[in-house]
Predict the structure.
Amino acid sequence: MKNKIFALSVSILMVFDAIIPLNSIAYGEKYSELKFNSEYYSKEPDFNLWDKFIKYDLCITDYDSLTDEEKELCEFIFKTERSANGTIICERARRILAGDNNIGERITLEQLNDCYGIWDNYSPFKYGYQNYIDCVPDIKCLDKWNDYNEYWLDDEGTMRVQFTGENSGSLSDKIHIYKENGLYEIETKKFLNIDAEGKKFYVPENYIENNGDYYYIKDDNTAVLVKSKYSETSFASSEKIIVPDEINGYPVTAIERWAFLNSCATEIILPDTIEFINAGAFQSNIYLEKINIPSNLKYIGEEAFAYCDSLKEINIDSPKLNISPYAFYGDRQLVNVNLNVKSIDNNAFQNCTSLKNLILSNNIEKIGFEAFYNCSSLENISLPDSLKIIGCGAFSKYSEEENSIKSITIPSNVKVIGALPRAKGEAPTSGFYVPPTDPLTEEQPCAFSSDCVIYGYQNTESELYANENNLKFIPLDLKYDANQDGNIDIADILTVAAYVANSKKNLISEQAVINADVQDSGNGLDANDCLMIQKYIYNGN
């Protein structure tokens, strides 16, 4: 396995002892010297949760086929996360186990000199695209305002760098390095505060202003659109906004966080050079009706297109793309969605209440937790053969009073239904306490509404899940088999014909009716069903 990150010959306990918790530091306080503290990892893991963890958290359905190294990673993740007294994620180990090719090398102390900070370019919660070091953290601590990312400088985790975490999103000017019992701080570069028409925002020093737009030039000689002149505007503009493919000779490859926040744009044209659209880039563009998604796109950040209330159609043909959580959350006028992507993450299209037409390409491997939650206009969906994982609540609804998907067809390749969501730490609020979540021990919502009919194959995950959740299950492998003899032939045509001629005299079972109702499913049997079965037989099935 490439880029092995854990010397697992070192005992798990030694690794626990090497990690420093930050739960004693309040947000806004100056960091003080911290000591090694094994008490943070003092809980005894409950191994009764192991099987659930493997299947529904890591989504591994053939554990015995894993290599010894992969099994060690599974054990490391389970023991580390389950023994912690707070909410942590072993991010790097999880990504390696999942075969992620964007892990990259470990950071070095030399890289930290004069840097802006450390971030994972492919994290849905990444704060900015400026000149950060791109590195996947070993540990994500998600508790309170003290959340942090921890980057190990060695395989044992005895020397660690801690930096801004997932919730605060602040641009820290210090990096904290822990070695043995000491704390060391490195000053990072400062940000330039630009005051444009009374609006303050931050961009790095090496930026370009062009016709009211601000671009940042990265070290690799590519440009990032940091702030559009159309952001934070009040009235709809009929002007077609075109993002250039280059600026001063630098190709434009990314749209920064909030670059078009609250824009007045009704139509935006993006160049094919765009590979990154960062979190919230087009958030709350309430007038936006049309935008193209470049085929080379590698990343759409969290809430990138959330609350675009006028957006009615989105077509994404980016086969390597993983859509981040909440990317299109709350787009209430979105009717047509056509997706050729790798995966759809948690809550990506939640509350798209007008969504009626959903086309998923035979490329998608995962649909995450509540990805299409409360999409109340969706009625019938066929999932692609490429799909392997469906998350909890993926197609469910708020309440029984809401409309919901009537039926869903699930291919036999789906191995996990009810994949667990990401754990959340104790939330920072001023008015009330929001406890942390533990998906492994808490009850999770069904992937589908209680009145949804599941079409699937016998002895597969879809049938097992339907039975466990009291959902109606209709076997696809019995389709056309009107006389339920396990074969599809002329006898099935005769059975349907006799039933249509006199249903009281020529009785057949309810399941037989379901099997033979292949034309306008749900409308009962008629001569058209006979014709469809005949075509099925003579076309060679």
Summary: The helical segments are 12-18, 50-57, 68-83, 91-97, 461-468, 490-501, 510-516, 527-538.
